[in-house]
Amino acid sequence: MELSFLILLICSFFSLSHSQKYYNAIFSFGDSITDTGNMCTGGCPSWLTTGQPPYGETFFGKPTGRCTDGRVIIDYMAEYFGLPLLPPSKSSGSSFQKGANMAIIGATTLNADFFQSIGLSDKIWNNGPLDTQIQWFQQILPSVCASDCKSYLSKSLFIMGEFGGNDYNAPLFSGSSTDTVSTYVPNVIQKISDGIEKLIALGAVDIVVPGVLPIGCFPLYLTLFQSSNTGNYDQNGCLKNFNSLSAYHNSLLTQKISTLRTKYPGARIMYADFYNQVYQMVQSPQSFGLKYGLKVCCGASGQGQYNYNNNARCGMSGSSPCPDPHNYLIWDGIHLTEAAYQSIANGWLKGPYCSPAILG
């Protein structure tokens, strides 16, 4: 009798210490921050630097199309909820009943016609904007839930992004000022909002909506837009005007999420605060179990203060990986390490970097 009571106590403790939530599946949308291989379903193309070694070395032992040394945030989400790692939605022969990932490297929020209107159609190099990703999701739905999709999707977790980074990269890298690019932000936010509403109409209830990263803290931007004016940098060495652009996006996004929560009281729309967590990781990497904030793990080792050279990026000749990626925040100058993504996943699951926390 005492033994059975002890077993019951242990089981109760385990169930309380682990997630109280259960999800049928996870469905993810986004860009290279969350892509799990949609550019590499038939093998990674030779021109794709993120599809070459040492990408994937830490966990998979080979490149998978993920733009890091191992797992990304949604991999940790899947593991936490006892689900298989999300297969890319474009992979043939995969089962999508437990989830699928529509995210693809280079994805934008806005469609090609917008970039054509501002003379940048040549800078958009894949066909996976948000609208298209939602179409991909609708195409796989019959294999996921057949007739009773609304019920199935109401018990699934959706990750909407992040979206916006590539919408801003295209004009920024083509010479547009941050002031000009900031005028595009309301269009981006409206498109994200439209996407959320489409998912809710299909049956989504639990939706995580990440903001954008503090791009002014990434070595790619710090190198391309370096300034001799110290007033352009904040106390952590990040470029103020680029971070202001990110902050503006996130401000409009949180306002839009508030409006959507009022409009859809039955939905649980969670804002994931990429910006503040990553900024704090730059400011105090040790607080997150890391050693280096602005230095790149995989890049041009020893070059400049960031180990970054745009002509010797990770996956290209002239670059090499560090031996200890678990100590780094930044993997390749624009994407984070597996260690950083694990920390971010925990921050979204349990707080304080997701409002409300996924497990809240």
UniProtKB/TrEMBL annotation:
<dbReference type="InterPro" id="IPR001087">
    <property type="entry name" value="GDSL"/>
</dbReference>
<keyword id="KW-0732">Signal</keyword>
<dbReference type="GO" id="GO:0016788">
    <property type="term" value="F:hydrolase activity, acting on ester bonds"/>
</dbReference>
<dbReference type="InterPro" id="IPR036514">
    <property type="entry name" value="SGNH_hydro_sf"/>
</dbReference>
<comment type="similarity">
    <text>Belongs to the 'GDSL' lipolytic enzyme family.</text>
</comment>
<keyword id="KW-0325">Glycoprotein</keyword>
<protein>
    <submittedName>
        <fullName>GDSL esterase/lipase</fullName>
    </submittedName>
</protein>
<keyword id="KW-0378">Hydrolase</keyword>
<feature type="signal peptide">
    <location>
        <begin position="1"/>
        <end position="19"/>
    </location>
</feature>
<dbReference type="InterPro" id="IPR035669">
    <property type="entry name" value="SGNH_plant_lipase-like"/>
</dbReference>
<dbReference type="Pfam" id="PF00657">
    <property type="entry name" value="Lipase_GDSL"/>
</dbReference>
